[in-house]
Amino acid sequence: MLKRIESEGLAHYSYLIGDNNQAVVIDPRRDVEHYIEIAEEEEMTITDIFETHRNEDYVIGSCELQAKTGADVWHAEKDMDYGYGEPAEEGKTWNIGRLKLEAIHTPGHTLGSMSYLLYDPDGEPWIIFTGDALFAGDVGRVDFYGAERLKEMSDKLYDSIFNKILPLGDGVIICPAHGAGSVCGESIAEREWTTIGIERERNLKLQVSGASEFADKVAEMREYPPYFARMEKMNLEGPELLDEGIKYMDTDEFEEKIEGAVILDTRPELAFGAAHVPGAISIWLNGVPSFAGWFLPYDKPILLVSDDVPKAAIYLKRMGYDNVKGALSGGMLSWHMSGRKSVSVNTLTVQKLCGMLDMGKEPWILDVRGIGELKNEGEIEDAHNIHVTQMHKKMEDIPMDREIYIFCGSGLRSMTAASLLKRDGWKNLNVVLGGVKGWTSTTCTLE
Predict the structure, then answer these.
(1) Where are the alpha helices (DSSP H) in 258-370?
(2) With respect to CATH, is domain 2-236 assigned 3.40.1500.20?
(3) DSSP secondary structure string, 45-79?
(4) Less packed terminus of the chain by CB within 10 Å, N or C?
(5) 184-188, 190-194, 222-226: which range is least confident on average?
(6) What's the confidence (pLDDT) of residue 185?
(7) What pTM does this model have?
């Protein structure tokens, strides 16, 4: 049995492997019930839990799963002072029924990164679980130890991939820890399953003549969210076990708790724009795993307004937000029915903005797309480009005495940007709905 469990938003992959009545889990997420349910359905017992590296983008579920199953935990990074589990040494093997799993040290993404090679019942290499060393279409980032160690880590990753993983054979299946959309790789391909042979042929990062050319492609400092530092600490010490659910609050209690708290509203951008609790931050539900870590604190209570509170809460808990103190029962409907004040954000279509430009008007446009999007999709002439994740550093560049028109690829991130500005005192805000596909201006074409 091989089951891959995907965590939405984070594009995180974990794996459940089993044979006969025994099962193991690789890189579990924090909400672990699904692994237990699958194992029980297959009449298997989870005996071991493996980590490929100390994760940066989510809270590992090893302690949670161990508490519920009694399984042994094997972590990578043997030189770190872990608060739980035992280190997995290179060459160590574990039997899973008729299968065998072997630890292979594959540093580069981190110093202690470990891959796990699964042998089939005939003893042949079958599947390698590469963690963040090798993805479909990409390789792991090597910038977590700073610019001064980029070349060192790149050389280690080159050695791990070219001298340890690729020689295993083209037919070996690769099971990485992330898929397309993860911040752990900038160009992960949308291949749900891949092999060493496919990656050898199609992965552009592997089309190199040696370690030096490989470094030219991968040795760069990249942006990463501030919450990564929190994840590293939690995943070293071992996170607290999850508490029981979320408290639902009526409007009176919710309002009482607002002072000193952060309100997260995960409803769609149009619903938020129409009416929201004053001071709320807008991050649409499926955007929570990607953007909450940029904007939400760990040292203040978080209150939820959401159409799907359980999903919003689990997204946050996977990122270590154990400070979610409650949710508004009945959502904005109950808030309105209680007679409480709400505020709104003006919206307009991208075609309307284009019409303003064609009439000779000069709106102050804040484009919150990323650099890659600007290169691939085109830039708006005279627009002010500040990626939404960098706004907190550049608030002084956004005028408070002008009407602001906020543009992204759809309106989702634009509403997040608008909510952050509105919370900090900006008033004349307009969110542009739609992206470059709807751009129709004849006088201001995309460059």
Answers:
(1) 269-274, 288-295, 309-318, 331-337, 350-358
(2) no
(3) EEEEEE-SS--SSS---HHHHHHHH--EEEES-TT
(4) C
(5) 184-188
(6) 64
(7) 0.92
Q: In what order do the strands lie in the sheet with 194-195?
A: 93-96, 99-105, 114-119, 125-131, 173-176, 194-195
> For the chain, what are the domain ranges?
2-236, 243-337, 346-438
Q: Rounded to the nearest 5°, which phi and psi values hold at 24?
A: -135, 160
Instruction: Decide: 296 and 264 in contact? Cβ < 8 Å.
Output: yes
CATH topology for the 243-337 domain: Oxidized Rhodanese; domain 1 (3.40.250)
Is the fold of 243-337 the same as that of 346-438?
yes
Give the residue among 138, 158, 142 at the shortest CA–CA distance from 150.
142
Q: How confident is the model at residue 187 (pLDDT cuts 50, 70, 90)?
A: confident
Residue range 346-438, CATH number: 3.40.250.10
| Structure confidence by residue, pLDDT tens digits, 5-42 | 999 878 899 999 999 999 999 999 999 999 999 999 99
Tokens 């090597």 label which residue?
142
Torsion (CA) 33, 35, 39, 41 in degrees, nearest 10: 60
Please state the φ and ψ torsions of residue 435, each to the nearest 5 degrees: -130, -150
The overall average pLDDT reported for the chain is 95
Indicate the pairing of strand 93-96 with strand 99-105. Answer: antiparallel
Q: Find residue 248's DSSP bridge partners.
A: 327
